[in-house]
Amino acid sequence: MKNFITFMFVLFLGFTSSAQNETINVADFGIKPGKDVTLELYQLIDSLEGKKNITLFFPKGQYEFYPENAFEVYRAVTNHDNSLKKIAFPIFNFDGFTLDGNGSTFMFHGKIVPITVEGSRNTTLKNFTIDWEKSFVNELTVTENNKEEKSFTVDVANEKFGFEVKNNQILFNHYDWQDEIGQNMAFDPATRSPIWQTKNYYLKPQSHKTAKIVKIDYKTAKFIDYTKSLPPVGTVFATYGNSPGANRFAPGIHLSNSKDNVLNNITVLAAGGMALIAERCENISLDTFIVTSRDDRTISTRADATHFLGCKGTIKLENCLLEHMLDDGINVHGAYVKVEKYLGNSTFLCETSHVQQWGFIFGEKGDELMLMSRETILPIFKTKIKEVKVLNERRMLITVAEVPAKMPEGKLSLENLTWYPDVYMNKNIIRENRARGALITTKGKVIIENNYFSSQMHGILIEGDNNKWYESGGVEDVVIRNNTFNTIGYGNGESYPLLAAPLFTEDQRIGDDKFHRNIDFSNNIIKSFNGHLVDAFSVKGLKVTGNIIELTNDYPTGSTLPAIHLDFCEDVIIEKNQFKNFNFPIKIEVKENVNSIKIKRNKGVK
Amino acid sequence: MKNFITFMFVLFLGFTSSAQNETINVADFGIKPGKDVTLELYQLIDSLEGKKNITLFFPKGQYEFYPENAFEVYRAVTNHDNSLKKIAFPIFNFDGFTLDGNGSTFMFHGKIVPITVEGSRNTTLKNFTIDWEKSFVNELTVTENNKEEKSFTVDVANEKFGFEVKNNQILFNHYDWQDEIGQNMAFDPATRSPIWQTKNYYLKPQSHKTAKIVKIDYKTAKFIDYTKSLPPVGTVFATYGNSPGANRFAPGIHLSNSKDNVLNNITVLAAGGMALIAERCENISLDTFIVTSRDDRTISTRADATHFLGCKGTIKLENCLLEHMLDDGINVHGAYVKVEKYLGNSTFLCETSHVQQWGFIFGEKGDELMLMSRETILPIFKTKIKEVKVLNERRMLITVAEVPAKMPEGKLSLENLTWYPDVYMNKNIIRENRARGALITTKGKVIIENNYFSSQMHGILIEGDNNKWYESGGVEDVVIRNNTFNTIGYGNGESYPLLAAPLFTEDQRIGDDKFHRNIDFSNNIIKSFNGHLVDAFSVKGLKVTGNIIELTNDYPTGSTLPAIHLDFCEDVIIEKNQFKNFNFPIKIEVKENVNSIKIKRNKGVK
């Protein structure tokens, strides 16, 4: 922890060095509220090339941004659709660039990325709200339902754009495209969260013959035989299209290849992807970063609130509110790449597995690598990158300093050991979203304290997969303390406040060693309808102590699953946890393959 | 003409300067017939970076190229779909690079561009054939038809890929995608050309209720109520999909920003776009460049055989055979960009109009520009580019040296006067293709002699539009002599061996001056079923002399249109043309707005 604090100190010292700021009032360059300022802003930013310690100051107001005259460049944006991106604030290769919105709203129209920070140092973004005239998510509110007809009527939140029904399909009009229904999810207006057992309300024709969509008027449509269960009046459907390039087009903010990034007092009300995606950045600090929905909407962003791939230094989140997004609150991880073939001469032909990671920078010269088994997901041999030759977005040649005397048989992958960050999360609220609260898989030091989590799936997921997304890796030092977990897993009651387990495919298997290490889950308060606490697999060094778990009645109570479930773990302490008020059995299930376990002084366990 | 010959001499002198070639036998680098050599070839080319006067020599054989390990980069390719392009031969920034296939076949699989020459000088490509395992064009041969059922049965040329029928749609399997029917055209096996009145056989459901496609077996399908007229047995349908990124993905050869390019003895049997597309190149010489279909196919390329946008120096085609492609034989033109808005400070906000020109380089610093009226398409003011700032693929800011004292009212466009080539075409055969033989709109000197044309639409089209494609511009010196035009316009009998006319939109109008100048169409032999010779609009200086037009009976004879039609022309000579054997009236129609016209000593005219 001492190193951690020292590091943070050095970090903040670095941030104050940009003291001789030149401040530019954008109004002096024709950038004024109430009109499209995209071209003027680009011309201004372009004219600042090479300048240091610049602050762009926006007099408070609402500024409009349209795609027509926006700067554009082809971008691979991890976890988004790679494509030509129009960018309103292209902050490329700056040192000491500050964007101060002074409480302004930046209002976007159509397919445009608000802010991209690329190849920069000491960037500060602060005091503004990002919103879209028309959200990328289409919302439908149920106003009537009819059991006999198996139908329900919806208000389409179309704002001025409208919709049409064609060939028995509903098409939502957007700035210059239409979305079909695509993926979708039902939300409960009472909780502003995904509705309990939301999958029963998935919008999909239930029968080829009777399923039908009828346009009633400009804002009303009727769905017949479209859901397994009839949605209650008030239900809000969130749908987003599958159109290529529009499915996850636009993050709110993209940080890439940049060092020392500070984001303060920013609100993101909508985005066509994540609110914030960061890749290959060193040091990112978020304070009062808010992702929420606008008053007239239920949903905020199309995907995660925040996501960090292959970063290093420290990622710090404090005082953030992340809610109403259609995916996780925060996800911090490294990456594996598949070894397609060993070509000899210390060179591996490697492949990035998931299409939405294609084009990301896996590693560069000098990065430490671990050669891994793709069967056990365990490390085999440590080496260093000598050269990376990118062939295409999917494949690359990686030449390393040293290889094992005999190349191991079986499927292999590579893990980048250099680009793992420390994580510090304090006083954040993550709630009312689809999916998980936090996914944390980094080899760095992790402290998660004083936060509030309430998520549809797991509260905190410590996973690592060598499978689909190839998100690495095994953790080494995670402390989760003094947090509140409220009604975790209100999707279907099967999730846990903490799940720590690598994700195995059918042809992957347990090896000789554990995947995760040193996870301390202590002194948290859990308000729970099912008593679930921790599910752990392949963890060495797991401490679950001093947690208080109290029954709530917000969702159907009870569970068929154990409160604590341990599989292939080692050095485990389960101590002084109190289960309060549960009127059903609270079980701890320990598989025979668990070694060195202490379970003592827990209350309320059967 | 003297300048022209001098220039050619200088050009060829330049070509011989790469005399101290180093020749590399690719076999020494593991590049051998019968296997995927994409990665090995890329590694070899990559290792040659910075070297001059290199010859890559391929021992004769068939080499395979697949997309998986190919070099990839985002490319705007004019007249094609812009996208990430995998490229087998990325010849980037070389000086004196020679690719000598020694008679080899380069066989491509899937979405991959065979050859891209970018930013290079003195490049020679020779002695190879480009082919694809599976053509981008889907061919269907009619084996039976049934009038009562309004049906016909087809053999699907599926090679090993096959097809499926799903939701009453036929889907042709390709390397890693499926094509729906999309655009299509029927060919006549007797002529190997588009069938007479091909639009009657357009594949489109004729009735929502009865139209049907049935899969009979792995290579047979039946179409019911799908064409206006029932296609004769033997008819070959060519169809190509609409899938984004696959519609015009891959040209055979892309020349871009390169000087002194020689292409000799190359055969292109298939391509997912044009066989050759060149943009912003200086000097391109083609000798024995052959575009044709493979013996087991009817169609060669998905689009034009050759196309040149915004080139300069000389474009020379000799001894070429261009046939069976689904678009024009050759198209040489410059480009206009629309002026969206004059921003003051000598800066225009400009827009590239057609989506398949987005991203092309319209002009660079130092290029001469003409400010044009977009209403009359006539020149207004000549100036020079001081700076171009590209905003995005569609829009740019162009700052010029001088603007008119008073900016003219009305819609404007800009024409690049610097990037216009001379054209020399000699002894080429262009035939049996959809669309036109040659489109030539360049301000350079043009000589077209001793060629054979036989096209579905116009033989030679001298157009220029400020409308859809924004292909400039008015010609100044064109000589078309001693060519043979055979059964021109076998699409529907409405086309001409020569049409010279700008294309006007409804809101464009004749101005004070003519658009084209100095076109000499002399001593050509025309074998014609309708007697059509020349249609000209807005041409000053038109000479049509010594042409012999003979009747053929290959298609239905006769015409409702005049043999010669003149509208808004000036300084016209129609002299000593002989119409032979026509058994229907041959008319010359001259509008009242034509000035200074001599019509004399023509034979066979009524």
Automatic annotation (TrEMBL), chains A, B:
GLAA-B beta-barrel domain span: 139-236, 349-405
InterPro entries the UniProt entry points to: Beta-barrel_GLAA-B_I, Beta-barrel_GLAA-B_II, PbH1, Pectin_lyas_fold, Pectin_lyase_fold/virulence
Range of residues in the leader sequence: 1-19
Protein name as annotated: Right handed beta helix domain-containing protein
Alphabetized UniProt keyword annotations: Glycosidase, Hydrolase, Repeat, Signal
Hydrolase in keyword set: yes
Record's catalysed reaction(s): Hydrolysis of terminal, non-reducing branched (1->3)-alpha-D-galactosidic residues, producing free D-galactose; Hydrolysis of terminal, non-reducing alpha-D-galactose residues in alpha-D-galactosides, including galactose oligosaccharides, galactomannans and galactolipids
Superkingdom classification of source: Bacteria
